Amino acid sequence: MGDFEYPRPQLVRDQWQSLNGEWEFEFDDEHQFRMPTDPIPWSRRISVPFAPESEASGIADTGFHSACWYRCRFTVEHRGERTLLHFGAVDYQARVWINNHMVAEHEGGHTSFMADITDELVAGEQTLVVFVEDDPADLAKPRGKQDWQREPHSIWYPRTTGIWQSVWVENVGATYIRRLRWTPIFDGYELGCEVLAGGDACPGLAVEVRVWHGEKLLAADSYLLVGQEANRKIALSDPGIDDSRNEILWSPERPTLLDAELTLYSGDQVLDRVRSYTAMRSVSINRDRFMLNGRPYHLRLVLDQGYWVESLMTAPSDLALRRDVELAKAMGFNGVRKHQKIEDPRYLYWADRLGLLVWEEMPSAYAFSARAMTRLVHEWSEAIERDYSHPSLIVWVPFNESWGVPNLTAVQAHRNAVEALYHLTRMLDPTRPVIGNDGWEASATDILGIHDYDPDPERVRQRYEVTDPVRTLFDQRRPGGRILTLDGFPHRGQPIVLTEFGGIAFDPNAPAHHTWGYSRQNTAESFLDHYRALLTVVNETAMFSGFCYTQFADTFQETNGLLNADRTPKVPLEQISAATRNVQ
User: Fold this and answer.
1) What is the pLDDT of residue 99?
2) What DSSP character marks residue 382?
3) pTM greater than the 0.85 cutoff
4) Phi, psi (degrees; rounded to nearest 5) at 459
5) Is the dihedral of CA 214, 218, 224, 228 positive or negative?
6) Is domain 330-581 given the CATH code 3.20.20.80 in the classification?
7) Integer Cα distance of 547 and 300 in angstroms
8) What CATH number is given for 16-168 in this structure?
9) Cα dihedral sign, 455-528-359-345
10) How many Å apart are CA 62 and CA 404, to the nearest integer?
11) pLDDT grade, residue 275 (50/70/90)?
12) 3-state class (DSSP) for residue 113
């Protein structure tokens, strides 16, 4: 990845090296090879971490490929007592060898994994081989927006096969900090800090935690590890007065981060040292309102698919990720709903640092089965563990529009799946709201998300400006032709958010029959007028605790973005921002 930065921004070490760059590559559609010692031709070169379907990879092959091989050679620059090999994401099943010794297997196309390769290293150059299986016809695996047809159609996009996030190695001691988890405890003005040690078991471990607000040291505490783990609360000095508290609170308007350094000791010996950051903020539900830092907060979100024309799901650079966060804010939004994608941690880093709320949504599987749900639970659990500590992340969404559970109204197993994922998510992270199934047919949920693409602003106003929503909206009207709540799960007063609407297509350079949207405008002026009229309605509708407009940028045949696919604005950013915020 160009302009490459440290891939895991909340647990940073100095001694590491990127393995991104040119690798040897081979498709293996017939599954002819099983081991790296087999006579693999290695007839191609690929630029990692870009998927072979992308132009940025140097291959740009969008055909159906069920398996492929990767190989690279590298030298460990600074050996520690242990060397760890990391993969940001490999779609879908990966097996990894170092010098012909298998070191890792992983299933799940959107989450990271690691291997300790210390014992397999040799003097001089190392050989890394990765075998990937990714059946393009398998609808029972979490695949998000990846099309099962050869050419992208409707709302589906090109497939992503193999490595699509960064590969890197780092050097650590025999015992090191393997996991770090931060939990802001707003009511007590405390920070929860969980540290798990990895590597060799070592008696007498302790971790020193230092936390700063700018140049001011807030805490410098030391904790013993019991069973290789420490789980402590760091009490901060609470000024008590809101004006003083606000100096340290995180929000999109004031994204204050607290820098941290953790040092792992055995006696007086330093075993590991990492840099991190966290924030003091809370997200919660109070009756019909979403709350940020104990106050009602109106959500202005934009749906973001996270695709680029030349590089698909992989950002062309770290600067591109930062630019996407900056553009969302410049258009007047205070958050994004990342749609059907577990985004690169570097995006979450920029959302943390620049101040942008993020809803994280699990990529869907589409064929319901016990195997599909087992895969979904496994990968979703890994995503929650990976991203738990990011302050910008405020809502988890395990299902979208009943995808993968299409018979919620009739089949109990489908309903059980949604309820189970809701409760699992709340168990893994009790600090954030969870939307069980976004869009319609809600059961267990903390926020009721409604998808309604009616292009007529006045019809939208009439539909949602009602005095008795339980009777007129939930019992009588069905946006999208779907019931909003399942039988047995009446609306209990949760916040209502219009989580998909708009989708106005506008692309004067493409024939209408080659593009797709929920409605269409043919000039920049009519596009902005239509957007302004819709946003006026949803901003002024008292029922809504917020909204999410579809969508951030054009994505392949979907030309319903506020930005073109290259992120240039279709109309001036300041005009979009004024309409988004309902400012005349």
Assistant:
1) 98
2) H
3) yes
4) -65, -40
5) negative
6) yes
7) 5
8) 2.60.120.260
9) positive
10) 25
11) very high
12) strand
